[in-house]
Amino acid sequence: GVYSAENNIFEAETTFRRILDIDSKSIQAHLELARILAVQGPFDDAEAMLKLAISIDPSNLNARFALFKFYLSEKKYNIAEETINKIIDDNPENADIYVVMGNFYLGQAKNDQAEEAYLKAIEIDPANLRNQIILAGFYERTGQTEKTLASYRKALEIEPDNIAIKNAIARYYLNQDDFQNAENQISLILDKR
Question: Which of the 8 DSSP states describes residue 177?
Fold first, then answer.
């Protein structure tokens, strides 16, 4: 037959509906069907499918994040914020969720709330290099130069031989027109090789 995107979407939708006929509790099938419905509409059907997946297992973070991302894609930021806050309320010790929340707030230009979320992620998991680098990047992006350097230095304490962090510190100094410290940082990188 003739290939068409509409046929592929229809076939995928049919397949996932058949899976749900066999196993109505398949969260993955609900999520995939919701993704298809989000593309072709209507909005309410996709949202209902995501909520149904969550009702099957309210602790399933994949389903809950899918709903959050769906609201973001539909530019329903208030509902997205409520959704991520509910995920946090139910998972207060999950540092990764705080990072997602920080990214959400950063995207909404709510920098104070973003910083608070990133700091909470680090409070929960202080040895997490990725989260420390994300915080440093946040500070750099928002022009908080002293906090940028302090965060990169904390990241370096976690992983002292990390060349990417050393490069980021050198770049920081270059951006500040502090060529002497940039040169010193680059020398440290080259001496380690």
Answer: T
